[in-house]
Every structure is written in C-alpha cells, then in structure tokens.
Design goal:
Blueprint: H1 2-22, H2 41-73, H3 79-83
C-alpha cells in the first residue's frame, strides 16, 4: 500500500501542478479583466474540476500515508496486518 499511496500522491500532484501551470489560459475569451484567456466555458469548467479535486485529494493521500506510517512505526503492524491476512 505504501508505494500505491506515493504513486497516487504523485499523480494528483502532477494534475494539480499542470492545471495551475495553465493559469488563465482555459478562461473564456470574453472574460473582462483576465489577461491571456483563450478558452471557453468548457475548458474553464474542466480545469476548475481537476484543480478542485486534486487540491482535495493531495491532503487526503498525505493523511493516509501518515496513518500508514503510524501503524508501522508506533503499533508495529506488518504488511500482512495491513492487507488483512493476519
């Protein structure tokens, strides 16, 4: 589970960073006061959706990783115990 948590955190971080890199590009063209707007309503909604869920998923994966490490270090739970095989 440890490697899967790290992998998921990387994917979520890449998604969030990629959307943040786009900045104002996906905003609708006719939006007043936004420089560099080349998108439409759909591109704005998609990037907002990805940014919102990636921003919320990153701390949840970090919390899961912390709980995972707590179980191993503090409570001496084995890999089999985490998988439910014990």
């Amino acid at each position: 589970p440890f490697r899967r948590l790290i992998f998921a955190m990387c994917i979520v971080d890449l998604l969030q960073s990629g959307v943040a890199l786009l900045s104002t590009l996906p905003s609708p063209v006719d939006t007043p006061g936004i420089w560099g707007a080349y998108g439409n309503e759909m591109t704005c909604s998609i990037t907002g959706f990805i940014f919102f869920y990636a921003s919320n998923a990153a701390p949840l994966y970090m919390c899961s990783l912390c709980i995972h490490c707590l179980c191993f270090v503090q409570y001496k739970v084995t890999q089999k115990g985490i998988k439910g095989e014990d």
